[in-house]
User: Fold these one by one.
Assistant:
Number 1:
Amino acid sequence: MLIRFKKSYEKIAMGLLSFMPTEKELKKLRCTIKEYETNENWQLYLWREDDDMLGIIGTVKQEDGVVQIQHICVTPSHRHAGIGSKMVQELRAMMPGVTVCGNEYTTSFCQKCGDTVQNM
Ligand SMILES: CC(C)(COP(=O)(O)OP(=O)(O)OC[C@H]1O[C@@H](n2cnc3c(N)ncnc32)[C@H](O)[C@@H]1OP(=O)(O)O)[C@@H](O)C(=O)NCCC(=O)NCCS
């Protein structure tokens, strides 16, 4: 299930975010996590199964009614088991009436997860 990020998950969240091609540098990663902690337009969720955090998905509000998935990562040992798709689907279900789009890194995967996910 998707759970909302909180400060106590910071280390695990940074570890998961570091799988994004855009988050390979520690300095950039620190800025990114800070933005999720302080900017209300940035929202971060973790995928929890039992007590394990296996994935992460982060969005930025583009305008009213539009959010963009800017980060999505699954821990390597649990890929190809549907977690990435489930995160996108659950996110969309949490946001009825909102258009969920991808960015240049996430669009191709998001498109696999459903017709209403589009590039912007
Ligand atoms: C992308 C990612 C989140 C998918 O997570 P996952 O739990 O393995 O996803 P699912 O099991 O739901 O789906 C796997 C399918 O997505 C495909 N896929 C993986 N990355 C993809 C991408 N960037 N674009 C399109 N399809 C992609 C896989 O090839 C696989 O396809 P198949 O079922 O036909 O074999 C995971 O591969 C990951 O963490 N990658 C590193 C982080 C990253 O680069 N994120 C940005 C790209 S979205």
Number 2:
Amino acid sequence: MDILTARGLVMTYGSTRALDGVDVTVRAGESVAVMGPSGSGKTTLLHVLAGVLRPTSGTVDLAGTDLVALSDAQRTRLRRDDFGFVFQSGQLLAELPADENAALPLLLAGRPRAAATARARELLARLGLAGMERRRPGELSGGQAQRVAIARALVGSPSVVFADEPTGALDQATGREVLDLLTSAARAGGAALVVVTHDPGVARWCDRTLAMRDGRVVGEFRAPAPQHQVPLP
Ligand SMILES: Nc1ncnc2c1ncn2[C@@H]1O[C@H](COP(=O)(O)OP(=O)(O)OP(=O)(O)O)[C@@H](O)[C@H]1O
Ligand SMILES: [Mg+2]
């Protein structure tokens, strides 16, 4: 089943065509890597697919709803309820412990504190952070902090998780570990994943890789069924 279908996406900034006619389909539960040189439009594409940016033209259909036609308030609500986000770094609140950081989307949506943090702690444990739930971001390694960010992205059981270079601030080995956990956790939660990465090894973890250049999708690689899938502990 297709969950997200974008057609004819164009995004212009003055004379720059950040997106120059992009068609993308994301199926429920699949993982899609987006690769390409700096400035090729990867972040812009992610933001348009996620309803953060409204494209100059084109449509983005999420299970029957055109995101482009929604009001800002409607898109904000939809982002909160249907999507999860992981950024490069720095998205955790320094003064909150890991469990409250991970529970934040549920707390903002008005869920009772006890239930929200319990759900967050369950995810943190599955991501290998049992015992670290009360640590603040400053007391975690970069890789551990990104796992908290992954827990936060998944805590609301989103249909799609968007990640923009989620391992960009980590060394390659830690980055791959985090990418591995991100793809496994998204699969386990039934969420589709769209991940921008510079790591060419990523095809190992994703079902498909899209190659971007100059605002266009210029290639698509379908990875063989991943043999390397570490089940969540
Ligand atoms: N808010 C903006 N205003 C003007 N131009 C922009 C804006 N955002 C992006 N651009 C331009 O659009 C193009 C695509 O940018 P984008 O950030 O999507 O690239 P990217 O592939 O994510 O690059 P990187 O790998 O460096 O993150 C670039 O030429 C960029 O300068
Ligand atoms: Mg970018």
Number 3:
Amino acid sequence: MDRIEKGKGPPGLTSLNCYCLFRVRYMLPCKHIFHEHIYESNKLLSSEAWKGFQGMFEESGYEIYEGRESSIEFVETKQQKEAEDRRLTVVELTERIRDKYWRVEELGDTKKTGDFISKLETSLKPIISNN
Ligand SMILES: [Zn+2]
């Protein structure tokens, strides 16, 4: 549940029609549906809804996934790759900042370290402040 809670803001679903990758691909309730159901006002996962999901597999088992795979795979791969690239860029930037900090810290000059940190804070403020 922790991951759902900390996830991005809820999309405010009013029905089970979420178009995220997980929902489209597996046709099962995704984290957005769970988030809405658990933390927001729309109780999407009624016993009726669950029956629907169960029935989906009772009728045709895993065959419901067949024929869908190839077209979705391509989209997922491209999107995932782009997301991964973005993630790596942020990780790299964070590491370079940390690296730089340790280099300054290791000089043992309290003033220099303090200057570095306040410079860092000033530079990052527009990025990390909530507005
Ligand atoms: Zn979703």
